[in-house]
Amino acid sequence: MATTDTQEKFTRPFHHDSNRYWFGDRAPPPVNQVTVDESAHWLAMGWSDLWAAPRVSLSYGAVFVVTAYLIFFGLSAVGMESLILPMTAGFMLVGPLAAVGLYEVSRRHACAEDITLREAFATFFRRSDQLLVVGLTLMVMMLAWFMVALLIFASFYHSAPPSMDRFFSDILMAPQAPLFLLVGTVAGGVIAAAVFTLTAISVPMLVDRDVSAVHAMACSVRAVSRNWKVMIGWAAMIVLVTGFGLATFFVGLAITLPLVGHATWHAYKAIIVDNG
């Protein structure tokens, strides 16, 4: 009996959706139209969730701070400092997947249930098959970003990327730097917009519902398309808050990642109609 109870508790967090692969008879869940005022409320609710479970949320964020430092010093140790900036920008692309456990914290909080840090990270394994599909999609997007960034750099600078201590003098002070930064920002923005459209709703939906990754990403595209004006502002807010965490030499991620993760959960719940 104890084993059965444990298994039930582990598989309980999402409700069943008989339209698992969407290409059946049932229509996808309806999408609400939201306002800018509601999007501000999502951030406030995210902040409330953060401090409703501060030990779990902040510890979750701290894990990614440590991970960021390991990547930073690892690249520096092997003489690949030139990859630090693209990797930092690339974090924006994988952020939705990194916040999976935070969506579960918010879901449990709404149900007045406690959760541990271990249970938050266990969410990755509970939906590992469908999250893997999203992860592979984001990996392709991130590799595309690296390739585009390399091509843009090669188009403007005819030398190998410099070390970090020479980056400012060799790259940012060069005559072509303004155009280089403009082209890089536009290219990165296009890739980031595609990632946001696919994941703004899909990843929290996979935590909440027993649906496929294809179903969830298609719903995300519909949701963003219907609320594109609000979602542009929402995406800008995510970039601003996450960028602040990165700009503090990753320390701020301990707060900004949980804040954005919890707020994203509330955005999902506001936009996707719950059919029960």
UniProtKB/TrEMBL annotation:
Keywords: Membrane, Transmembrane, Transmembrane helix. The chain crosses the membrane at residues 58-77, 83-103, 131-157, 177-207, 228-255. It comes from the Bacteria. The keyword Transmembrane helix applies. InterPro entries: DUF2189. Pfam families: DUF2189. This is Uncharacterized membrane protein.
